């Protein structure tokens, strides 16, 4: 019988700890899940660019104001084999620790699969995001589909996902699947399985990366001035007060204009307070960032690009997670200018940085063109898959 156990949420990061928690030893479940998840991604893409560290995974499980993560592991256990007295989480799952010593009984069982469910709390509150990783022995060989045993485990994961969705009143359950830059997306094992279970693709993105060579990307100052705009560079410490209105305006534009296919999103207006909250949450969560902001002579927002990195991430890799140009300034090459300004500043401030990755909707012709024109290379493609769940109002899991 497949039994799903919750791996306890580690304590929240606090601003007082600077986002740090001292030395906390992750349990075997976290180490093994990081390993199989990295392995599956490396096999699919042929690159370790998107691999994460165990510490990064542990950090990602800490609750924040914006989201919670539910990490579950599947074990094959005979009836009655679960030790008595395990603590239960609010959804009714028996719980094992995420840090410290492994319970001895747990070490006797190999996990079959790992399920991570991300639950947004402030926006998009009818959605959740999930990721499933099978233990390495169930991964299909290149070009093959899942075995019946692997499908049995995945069906069990879909069942448990439905239960969590019902308990949390979530109806739109999304999953990202990543394949190599040139693979046909639909033919990969997980998309084929999901399609056979009634899920469908709602969005596609391409991932790029660029080698950061110091100084190589800096746009020339005269280039910026000639365009009648000025450049403001700032870090996770926060946007300068005078530029907050410009930042709010560009953040609103990004929320409305970044293509997201048929993913259901609920844009909500950016205010200076919301910006300051987001900056505080990011700092408390251990993120550092570089932002390049262009403003015009009247102080209005022209363009913005940000690069971020988590304290527990590999120091040589960061992510350029947003670039936007104000609608009335498009068509003048400013997306490339602001993107290069952020890359140059990240290279200057973070000497260990070697590569920066980014992800963009396949239909976003201008952004794909910019990425290629500044020397980024396509490394993989990701598709978002929607599983629709009926809205249940009982809110009870009724687990045994
Ligand atoms: C993407 C975005 C930043 C580009 O703004 P921009 O810098 O003003 O873009 P430009 O119009 O100068 O176009 C950039 C390049 O794409 C090309 N391009 C633009 N639209 C194109 C299209 N439909 N098909 C092909 N090429 C296109 C341009 O010719 C230009 O190439 P070139 O420099 O070789 O001539 C802007 O459209 C935007 O803010 N969109 C919303 C936010 C977003 O989607 N961000 C990306 C996700 S993070």
TrEMBL record:
Residues 268-368 form the N-acetyltransferase domain. Coiled coil: none annotated. It comes from the Bacteria. InterPro entries: Acyl_CoA_acyltransferase, GNAT_dom. SUPFAM superfamilies: Acyl-CoA N-acyltransferases (Nat) (SSF55729). One of its GO terms (molecular function) is acyltransferase activity, transferring groups other than amino-acyl groups. This is GNAT family N-acetyltransferase.
